[in-house]
UniProtKB/TrEMBL annotation:
InterPro entries reported for this sequence: ChsH2_C, ChsH2_Znr, NA-bd_OB-fold, Thioester_dehydratase-like
Highest rank taxon of the organism: Bacteria
Domain (ChsH2 rubredoxin-like zinc ribbon): residue spans on this chain: 21-56
Coiled coil spans: none
Protein name, UniProt field: OB-fold protein
Segments forming domain ChsH2 C-terminal OB-fold: 60-120
Length: 139
């Protein structure tokens, strides 16, 4: 029996966010939208913070992200992750923010305001989740 850390945080999937993980599994980034006032929200929530409606649908994000901030996680290390483990906070053009791993870009290359793409890959949990990568084409 190994004594290495197994601290991979579990995904907490509920009836309120199941649609979002299902969309990610299919390779698209869902954004929840209130069908009464059309306010977008993320992370998923059962109720609109603006008008308190429980009615909602989803739109698909363009997945063109703009880096707002990031952090490099050094400790604690877990064998489930690759290091340096870089996590970014990005603005999406739809007007919401997303937190995801940044993959394939060295931390010293990162600059607030740079453009990143949201792509999908299998994560440490075995689930498919969004991640932030260098844009495939210059824009
Ligand atoms: Zn609303």
């Amino acid at each position: 029996m190994s004594h290495q850390s197994t601290a991979v945080p579990p995904l907490i999937i509920t009836e309120d966010n199941r649609f979002w993980f299902a969309a990610a599994e299919q390779g698209w980034l869902a954004i929840q939208r209130c069908t009464r006032c059309h306010t977008l929200r993320h992370p998923p929530a059962p109720c609109c913070a603006r008008c308190q409606s429980f009615e909602w649908d989803t739109i698909e994000s363009s997945r063109r992200a703009n880096l707002c901030s990031y952090t490099v996680i050094h400790h604690p290390r877990d064998t489930a992750f690759d290091y340096p483990l870089v996590v970014g906070l990005v603005d999406l053009p739809e007007g919401i923010r997303l937190v995801a791993d940044i993959v394939g870009i060295e931390p010293d290359e990162l600059v607030a305001g740079m453009e990143l793409d949201v792509t999908f890959a299998e994560h440490a949990h075995g689930a498919v989740l969004p991640r932030l990568t260098r844009p495939e084409v210059w824009r």
